[in-house]
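Purpose: get a first structural picture of the assembly so the mutagenesis plan has something to point at.
Setup: four entries, given in the order below. No constraints added.
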Amino acid sequence: MDTKLSYSLRELAQLAGVSKSTASRVISGNGYASPDVRERVLKAAEELRYKPNAVARAMVAKRTYNIGVIVFRDKLPIVSHTLYGKIVDEILMAAEDLGYSIFLKTDREMSLRSMDYMLEQRVDGLILISRLRKNVIDYVKKFNIPYIMVNGSAEDPDVVHLVSNDEAGGERAAEHLYDQGHRRFFIVAGPVEHRSHSLRLSGFLNKLGSLDDGKRMITEEDKQSGQGSDGIVDETSTKAEDASRISIVTVAESPDSSFDSGVRLMEERYEEFRSGSYTALFATNDMLALGAMKVLLENGVHVPEDVSVMGYDNTDLGGMYHPALTTVSVDAAGLGRDAVAILDRMIGGEENVPRLIEYESEVIARRSTRGEGNGTCSGIGNT
Amino acid sequence: MDTKLSYSLRELAQLAGVSKSTASRVISGNGYASPDVRERVLKAAEELRYKPNAVARAMVAKRTYNIGVIVFRDKLPIVSHTLYGKIVDEILMAAEDLGYSIFLKTDREMSLRSMDYMLEQRVDGLILISRLRKNVIDYVKKFNIPYIMVNGSAEDPDVVHLVSNDEAGGERAAEHLYDQGHRRFFIVAGPVEHRSHSLRLSGFLNKLGSLDDGKRMITEEDKQSGQGSDGIVDETSTKAEDASRISIVTVAESPDSSFDSGVRLMEERYEEFRSGSYTALFATNDMLALGAMKVLLENGVHVPEDVSVMGYDNTDLGGMYHPALTTVSVDAAGLGRDAVAILDRMIGGEENVPRLIEYESEVIARRSTRGEGNGTCSGIGNT
DNA sequence: CCTCTTTGTGGGAACGGTCCCACATCACAT
DNA sequence: ATGTGATGTGGGACCGTTCCCACAAAGAGG
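Result (C-alpha cells, whole complex):
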C-alpha cells in the first residue's frame, strides 16, 4: 500500500463507494455530482493522495498541454547562453501562467531527432529557438503541428517567427556613436550567415551612410575621392577611402560569435586597430564586444577615453563589466512571452496569427561609450 | 488525410495489411516478424510518417522516460543563472544520452504546485535543484518516486544529494590567498542560510585559523594580544584583534548573493574597506566578488596590485572580466551528469546508490589575485 | 395512478499502444 | 498418417482516463 506509486481513478472510486464515472466527474470538475458524493470522493482522494494521471488524460483528450522547446546549437551548451537562457526563462514563466509545461531539448547536430522526439511525445506545439537549417523547417512543416520560430534565420513567409528588429537596432547603434562624434569605426561582425549579425551590421552601415550624406562637411577625416555609389563600405576590412563619405569603417568578420572569438580577433588585429586610430568599436553582439574590449583594456587602452565600445544584446554581463558596456537591448522577455501566447492561440486553432513580429530595440547607454552614459546594470546572477 | 496530425498503429497495420500486433512488433522491435512483413510495415510507416505515440506507450509501460527538473528560485529567473544554467545544460545532455527527456519547471514560491505537476505527468524521477524548503522534501517523500537533490541545503540523510564540497573549496581559497602573502582579508559572505555560502565561509575561516597556528611569526600585521580560543574571528565585521592570530579578517554579510548586492555592499562599506588596508577580498560567489570588485575598480583601486579579489563558482563571466577573476571551480558538469546517471539507477530499482556525493573544487588562479595567475577564460557565450 | 420530465449515477466504449496467449501452418520424426 | 515442435501471425485484455448514453428514482402534471 505504501509501496504503490499512485492510485487509479477506479481505486479511488472504489474507496469512495461510487463508480469511476462519478469519481471522474468530481475530480475533473466536469459534470454534476451531489454534494455528499463529491465530499466522499474528495476525502478518498485526500487519503490516497490521488493524482490524476496526465498521461491517461492526454491520451483521451489527444492533447498534452505540453509545449516542446528545442534550442538548436552547434557545439556550445545553450541554456546557459546569455540571451537564449533569458528567453527560455520567460517561456517557462509564460507557459506556467497559461497552464502548459515545457519539454526542453537542445540539439547539437541540428538534426531531426529532437523533433521526432517531440512529435512522439505529442506536444501541443513547438517553439524552435535560434537559427535552424532549412531541412528542419521542411520537416516540421510536414506534420500538422503548430510551431513558432524565435530568433530564427529563415525568411519563410509561412512560418510564424518572432525576431528582434536587428536592422533598426544596428541603425540606432550607429546613430548613437555618430552623435557622440565618432567618425572612425571598427566593427567586429559575427558570422554573416546569422540573420541577427548580418542585419545588425547592415543596419549600422546603412545608417552611417545616410548620416554622412546629410552633413558631409563636418569632419576631419574625410578622404573625398570616391564616386558616390551606395555600397557604403568594404565588406572585409579595407579602408573605405574610395567612398564619398566622411566615416572610416573597417569591418572585421569573426567566424563565430563567442567571447573568445572577440578576444582572438582583436589580438590578431590589434596593430591594425591602433594604427587606424579608430575611436569607436561596434560589435554585433555583447560577447564579441567584451572579448575585443578586454584585449584593448589589457593593452592599456582606456575605454571610453581612447575608444568607445558598443555591443548588442544587453546581456547581463555587459552591465556588470567595468566599464559597463553600452549596448542595444533585445526584448527577450517579450520574445519569450509572446512565443508562448501566440503558440497557444495557434494550438487553439486560430488561423489568424501574425506571421512576423519584430521587437524594437533600444540603445542602453553605459560607460563604455563616451557621453552621458551611466554605469548601472540590470543585475542578475545569484546563488 | 493531410489534415491528420498523426496515424495510429491500427491504421498503419491496415495499410500494411497486417494485424496491429504484428505492426507493433516491427515498430517496437520486440518480437519476431518475417522479412517481407517487416518490410511492408516499414514502408507503410514511411508513407504515413508514422510516429509511435509516446503517451500511449507510457500508459501501458507505466513509465514515461521523462525526468522532471525543478529549479527552486525565489525571485530571479534561474535558467539563465550562471551556475544553475550550466547544470541544467549538463542534465539536458546527459538525459539525452540515456534516453530521457526533460520536463523543466521553475518554481517561484518554492511551492508544491510544480511537484504536483510532475507527479501528475508521471515522470520517472525528479531532480530538484537549489535550496528547497523542508516542506517540499517532506512532500516528495510521501510519494514513491525516485528523486535527487542537486546543490540543496537539506542535510537529510535519506535524500540522495549531490553537492560540491564547499568547505574544502573555502579552505583552498584561503590557502591560495594566504600563500600569496595576504594577511588582511575582507570577506563578502552571501546569505548564511545557504548551505554553499555558509560552508565556503567556514572553510575559509577555519583554514585561515590553522594556517596562522602553524607559522605565527611570519607576519607584519600580528596584533599579538589574544588568548588563543579557536573561535577564529568575529562573525560580523569587527576586527579580530583579540585573537592570537596573525590574520585580520572582516566578514561582511550580504543579504543576497547577486551582483547588485556585491555592488551595494561595497559601496556602503567602501570607506571601512579602504581604511582597513585589506589586501585581499574573498566573496562566497563570483557575482558578489565581481560586484564588489567593480566598485573598487571604479574607485581607482587597482586589482590585483592594491587588492586581490577572489570569488567562487567559476562562472564564465569571471573568466571574461578584466581583470579575470580568480575563483574556485564548481564541477557543474559532474553534478549534472551524475544527477541523471544516479537517478537512472534509482529508477531502475537500484537501492544501493550513494546518499551523498561531494565534488571537489579547485582554485582557478587568474589575474585578479596577485601571483602567477594567467588571464585565460573558459569562453562561452555566443549568439 | 400513470406518464413525462428531470436529475444523479453507472456502464462501457474509446484513445493507441504492449504483450500474453491462442492458433494456423508447416517441417520433421515417429 | 499422425503427433510434435517450432514458427509466424492475429485476437483481445489492459493501462487510466473521458464522455456519451442508458437508466433508475423522484417529482410534476394530467
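The longest helix of chain A spans residues 195-214.
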